[in-house]
Design brief:
alpha/beta, Rossmann fold, 11-stranded mixed β-sheet
Length: about 325
């Protein structure tokens, strides 16, 4: 289950046995899972609705109520895998999820090793190159500090998320392509957070009250373009002109539920950044969060991953500028 680098994931769990719940908590710690435990199965769906970036759901078998709960999760969030502990998995022989795209797996009580294998197979099955994760954290952090004045960026541990709900109200998206990957890069944020920074004069935009939202949108577009330029400069070979076969998958966005789908169940590679004040001489600001997410749903071949080693030298010499 161990990735080449240490990635985290958020797990929602309902376990009615206290001893087994404690074992499951230790399991989560051992495998770098952020376990959120629900006191009642009746609260599980509500908790899913209130949280984003969920990697998987763990349940204990309570008979028909559990079957109903599985079907509700599958119906509303088919992209989130569900793993069910039961004394006799054979009682679920023939069980079919209510949504054909949903993933449900069963494991016998006491078989935490099997649970680890299931999570590895269905959540941590991709190995993300260390250079990709570290460099993207660095590129994004530099971009954030360039576009927001007098801030510092706290980089939380990178993680994988199965659910495809959008954080906040602002959503910027741009395609990424290389010989080893193809998909999209997304930035997600709350509009008020960015609006407040523009309004406080902590950006390069000097906006009046009527222009704040428009300038905030421009700023986020420019920031994502900066990060995209860093990705292209660092991870796309200068000789790359496109792959021989280009496959396109329709993208679906549900505005009411703030949900985006690329037609696959692959987890998203996510980066969370907390932006805090680093210059008390500037107008006051409240800390806020930005998320950078990747979906490599069109092509993934890490064996051909490479970094362009000359990028740092060229940037330091002023020969290269991200855009």
């Amino acid at each position: 289950m161990r990735n080449q680098i240490t990635l985290a994931s958020k797990i929602l769990a309902y376990e009615n046995d206290e001893v087994l719940r404690n074992s499951l908590k230790n399991f989560c710690k051992d495998f770098n899972l952020n376990g959120v435990f629900i006191a009642s199965s009746l609260r599980l769906l509500h908790t899913i609705e209130q949280r984003v970036n969920i990697g998987a759901v763990l349940l204990c078998d309570e008979g028909h109520p559990t079957r109903d709960l599985i079907n509700e999760i599958n119906t509303k969030h088919p992209e989130i895998p569900v793993f069910v502990r039961c004394d006799d998995p054979s009682v679920y022989d023939g069980f079919r999820p209510s949504n054909e795209r949903a993933l449900v797996r069963f494991y016998k009580t006491g078989s935490l090793d099997l649970l680890g294998e299931l999570i590895s197979e269905h959540l941590f099955y991709r190995v993300y190159p260390e250079g990709l994760v570290e460099r993207m954290q660095e590129i994004a952090s530099n971009g954030i500090m360039s576009y927001f004045h007098g801030v510092k960026v706290l980089k939380e541990r990178s993680f994988l998320a199965s659910d495809k709900r959008i954080y906040g109200e602002r959503f910027e998206l741009i395609s990424v392509r290389s010989n080893w990957c193809e998909g999209v890069m997304m930035m997600q944020s709350y509009g008020a957070d960015v609006d407040n920074m523009v309004r406080a004069g902590r950006t390069s935009f000097d906006a009046d009250a009527d222009g704040v939202a428009r300038f905030s949108e421009d700023l986020l577009r420019e920031l994502l373009n900066f990060i995209w330029g860093g990705f292209k400069a660092k991870f796309v070979s200068p000789e790359f002109t496109g792959r021989p076969t280009n496959i396109e998958v329709p993208m679906s966005i549900n505005h009411e539920e703030k949900y985006i789908s690329f037609g696959v169940a692959d987890p998203l590679l996510c980066f969370k950044f907390i932006v805090e004040n680093d210059d008390p001489s500037l107008p006051e600001m409240k800390p806020f969060e930005l998320y950078l997410k990747f979906s490599f749903h069109l092509h993934w071949d890490p064996d051909h991953f490479h970094e362009n080693p000359e990028v740092e030298q060229m940037a330091q010499a002023g020969e290269l500028e991200f855009f």
